Amino acid sequence: xxxxxxxxxxxxxxxxxxxxxxxxxxxxxxxxxxxxxxxxxxxxxxxxxxxxxxxxxxxxxxxxxxxxxxxxxxxxxxxxxxxxxxxxxxxxxxxxxxxxxxxxxxxxxxxxxxxxxxxxxxxxxxxxxxxxxxxxxxxxxxxxxxxxxxxxxxxxxxxxxxxxxxxxxxxxxxxxxxxxxxxxxxxxxxxxxxxxxxxxxxxxxxxxxxxxxxxxxxxxxx
Length: 222
What we know:
Layout: E1 2-9, E2 12-18, H1 27-45, H2 54-69, E3 74-82, E4 86-93, E5 99-105, E6 109-118, E7 123-131, E8 138-139, H3 148-162, H4 196-201, H5 215-218
Antiparallel strand pairs: 1-2, 2-3, 3-4, 4-5, 6-7, 7-8
């Protein structure tokens, strides 16, 4: 995944997480296509009818199913932070022209937190907004989870624009800032607001990050 911070002006900043194009086609997809072509050539060589071949029907159906799943692969997620206005969340897909957009007014943002989520194989950290009138937190990046060091930069920059104050945050010392594992959080259960205080308290004990906001770090492309 690729991260970029785009300073539109002094009051608007866009944080963007994008997936590389080559991740759309996997080796398994190429294997299915190769198997389907070989099956067609075999039937042509032996002068057999393709309509009577179960393997052709099976491979063709599997290829169509894999192609259908590609419509749900997220290509890019972005967070646009506007001072005194609010935030806008955008999500783009590889094979779908539509873009999912959600806007949250500043007056309805009660708090911005970095929380931890548990998947089947790992524990990850994600950024979320506590919004007035909603029982669940709104995830800043729902499908493409950035690394913890990138997430901290986005968090500090968002706090500085929305609340106009320096931030001091804490993360567990067992989490490495160079971690490159970013599982897709499809299996994350977003905690309700009654669980926020319990989760937030677990983030207050270990290593404390710098209290000063260095906006110049946000402008680096990774």
